[in-house]
Amino acid sequence: MSTSRAGPILVLGGARSGKSSFAENLIEAAGLPMHYVATGQAWDDEMRDRIRHHQDMRRGKGWTIHEEPVELVALLRRIDDPARAILVDCLTLWVTNLMMEARDIAAEFAALAAFLPEARARLIFVSNEVGLGIVPENRMARDFRDHAGRLHQIVAEKSAEVYFVAAGLPLKMKG
Question: Which long-range contacts link 56-64 to residues 24+ away (Cβ below 8 Å)?
Fold first, then answer.
């Protein structure tokens, strides 16, 4: 596990795979001030509970929390600093938010891709791998899966390291 500034790190995995914990350990190992960028929105009570749980887990542990569901690239540009470690959790929630706001997804992905090579912070992205299951039954779910897959390819190509986490076990795929 590298903590030097050699480029972004992408951590993929399924639901409850241990990917967020693994990414947090990478951030803590960097020994830099830690910034947590949360992309989730509370669409219902269950999501409100999840967000509250995540906030409680990080409270008092040295994290500076940023909540940004849509303008991710603009926020990353504002907080980018070589003296910081930034964890973005998660890219698939960002995709959901972009879709719900009918944003130009290709343009948003291109903006992130353009930013990644110039990022100066220790930058780690967490995302849900959703393309390993059955084909979703409805158009929106298929579009979401396809957008997520394209975004993962973009971020993986620009990343120095890529990990896949299953059952709490990280598999290094790149770097």
Answer: 62/33, 62/34, 63/34, 63/35, 63/36, 64/33, 64/34, 64/35, 64/36
* Through-space distance between the first and last CA atoms of the chain, rounded to whole angstroms: 9
Query: Tokens standing for 25?
Result: 């350990």
Strand segments, DSSP code E, in the chain are 9-13, 34-38, 63-67, 85-89, 122-128, 161-166, 169-174
Q: Cα separation of 121 and 129, whole Å?
A: 24
Residue 68 DSSP symbol: -
Is the pLDDT at 1 greater than 50? The verdict is no
pLDDT in tens, 38-88: 998 877 888 778 777 777 777 767 899 999 999 999 999 999 999 999 999
* Paired strand residues for 125: 10, 88
Active-site residue, selected from the candidate residues 35, 54, 66, 147: 54
**Separation of alpha carbons 91 and 25, rounded Å:** 18
Alpha-carbon Rg for the chain, nearest whole angstrom, is 15
Contact status, residue 136 vs residue 145, Cβ threshold 8 Å: yes
Active site residue 152: no
Q: Which residue has the tokens 């540009």?
A: 77
Q: What single string gives the DSSP state of each residue in 40-61?
A: ----SHHHHHHHHHHHHHHTTT
